[in-house]
Design a protein that fits this description.
With 543 residues, the chain is mostly helical. It contains 24 helices and six strands. β1 and β2 form a beta hairpin. The termini are far apart.
Length: 543
């Protein structure tokens, strides 16, 4: 084995080890959070129980909001690891790992010697870590979409048709993950880059009949099978959950137009200090390319248009979803891999970094660790003890000093590794010492554990005047429908008051309110869960 191959294996081992820690370590340290995670986990469980790989169902009713790829992957994970909450997160973590490895090889091909740095930036970026550790569709869209765009660039540079065909196949998997947004973004990015290059034929050359056939071979079998089984699929999925979601505030996710600017910046922590100048430089290059064609020979020698391509790829998802009336943080995740590549490419070209940039980066690394230490106290809305405040200050100071001194002494080549230190410490703290607190205040798993101390797991449970996340979470952890008393409440959960004996979960001190709703039926408080400010009431059967 040659020295180069040995180095490659060593680098890949390091990349996979870093990915394991950031994406897989402590994956079940706290339970499923929000509404989407437990909902997707339960849908996959029902599909597995029914041996139905076509129709996603929630509580026995067809769930047509998202395509099937996530559910297929979660079902496979359940088959290997059992129906566990952390198993539902494995597909996203695996896709994030595959994306980091793809970034490694992409940069190895087009920016040799920067591949390890690019992989480290990708693996340690807040957006990558956050969505890699969640049972959601965002990473399952982003990974194949980003790989598709890298394949398109490889085709653009090499003219090898295999890369173009891979581009279409990967977009197909993106469409199976989250629908038409995958090809739509790809069309906009390629068209935008063609405009920047002042080369309209580039877009036309990207159209491949064989590629389109491969795309439809990947996508159409499931879409047509579901439309055959559930005839309203086309209307609900394409018209309601795509067009109406984009053009209206149908699902109450309205945010200001500039919402994705801070979201994007947070996704690039702790590298954002270098992402911003990288974007500025690439933007200037793209604008100059639009005004006058650059000298092709000079361009190919140093850039070949890669920075302009990455700039367009970064900006398009941010602008596209900023126009949308419905906004959620995960929507712009497809922009993050491009920003990662652009940041790595910028650092690769930087012989030295200014003292201001290094100082700001060191300060941000310190704030990252301090923020992680503060997170559980912010969640429970109590100040940290004085000794911990002192520890935070000292830890932040040590981290800032270490990063500043090491980078000033050793230069860019150590930047990526010293930045991993605060990132690793932050994740280790969140999934170990802080995890029980996060579990109690964010996940329904702790609610179910407390509830099981008071009633049998087969007793029906309902909710009244509490956040919908609790209902969806208990839907998974109790593996039963959780009706809500209100007629207006979480979608695809039953409404109304159960006729038999059941437990209702409501706000602390809601005995009189529950009694007023159920009328003459007996209501008894049987326990409470202060971290979520909720109380458990046993409601007798209707007379």
């Amino acid at each position: 084995m040659t020295d180069r191959n040995k180095l490659l294996l060593l680098q890949l081992g390091l990349v996979l080890g870093v990915c394991y820690f950031f994406f897989f370590f402590g994956l079940g340290a706290f339970g499923l959070v929000g509404a989407d995670e437990p909902r997707y986990a339960q849908i996959a469980r029902e599909m597995l129980n029914h041996h139905d790989w076509i129709v996603p169902t929630l509580n026995g009713h067809a769930w047509l909001e998202k395509p099937v790829l996530l559910y297929w992957k979660v079902i496979t994970s359940y088959m290997f690891f059992g129906v566990e909450d952390w198993a539902a997160r494995v597909p996203a973590a695996a896709h994030a790992t595959a994306l980091v490895v793809a970034i490694f090889f992409f940069m190895r091909r087009f920016r040799f010697t920067s591949e390890l740095d690019a992989a480290m930036i990708a693996a340690s970026s807040a957006g990558m870590i956050g969505f890699a550790r969640g049972a959601s569709t965002d990473m399952l869209l982003t990974a194949p979409f980003a790989m598709a765009m890298m394949c398109w660039w490889a085709w653009n540079q090499s003219a090898k048709r295999l890369w173009l065909l891979a581009f279409y196949v990967l977009l197909g998997f993106g469409a199976l993950a989250k629908g038409p947004v995958s090809p739509a973004l790809a069309i906009l990015v390629v068209a935008g880059y063609a405009v920047v290059r002042r080369d309209g034929k580039l877009f036309l050359r990207s159209i491949s009949i064989t590629g389109l056939l491969l795309f439809f071979v990947v996508v159409l079998p499931w879409y047509l099978a579901l439309e055959h089984r559930v005839p309203e699929f086309f209307r609900v999925f394409f018209l309601q959950h795509n067009l109406e979601r984009f053009g209206s505030n149908l699902y109450q996710h309205s945010q200001p137009f500039w919402y994705y600017i801070p979201v994007f910046l947070l996704c690039m922590v702790p590298w954002v200090i270098f992402t911003l100048p990288a974007l500025v430089e690439a933007g200037r290059s793209a604008l100059s390319g639009m005004r006058a064609k650059a000298d092709p020979s000079a361009e190919s020698a140093q850039d070949a248009g890669l920075s302009s391509f990455l700039f367009v790829w970064t900006v398009i998802p941010v602008v596209f979803f900023s126009i949308s009336r419905s906004k959620l943080p995960g929507y712009i995740l497809p922009a993050v891999p491009a920003a990662v590549l652009l940041t790595a490419e910028y650092l690769h070209r930087s012989a030295a970094l200014s003292r201001l940039k290094v100082s700001l980066h060191a300060l941000l690394c310190a704030l990252l660790l301090v923020g992680a230490l503060m997170a559980p106290f912010a969640m429970v809305k109590v100040p940290p003890p004085s000794w911990l405040g002192f520890l935070m200050a000292v830890s932040g100071g040590v981290i800032a000093f270490m990063v500043l001194v090491m980078v000033r002494r050793e230069g860019v080549r150590v930047l990526h590794f010293v930045t991993l230190v605060p990132a690793i410490l932050a994740i280790a703290y969140l999934v170990r010492p802080a995890a029980p607190i996060i579990d109690k205040v964010q996940s329904a798993r702790a609610v179910q554990e407390e509830l099981s101390r008071h009633v049998a797991n087969d007793l029906p449970v309902a909710t009244f005047n509490v956040k919908r996340e609790i209902a969806y979470g208990l839907n998974f952890y109790r593996n039963q429908p959780i009706p809500h008393y209100e007629q207006e409440g979480p979608r695809d959960l039953p409404t109304g008051i159960p006729g038999g004996q059941h437990v209702v979960i409501s706000k602390l001190g809601s005995l009189e309110a529950v009694q007023a709703v159920v009328g003459q039926r007996t209501v008894t408080s049987i326990g409470n869960f202060p971290p979520r400010q909720i109380e458990f009431f046993l409601v007798g059967p209707a007379k």
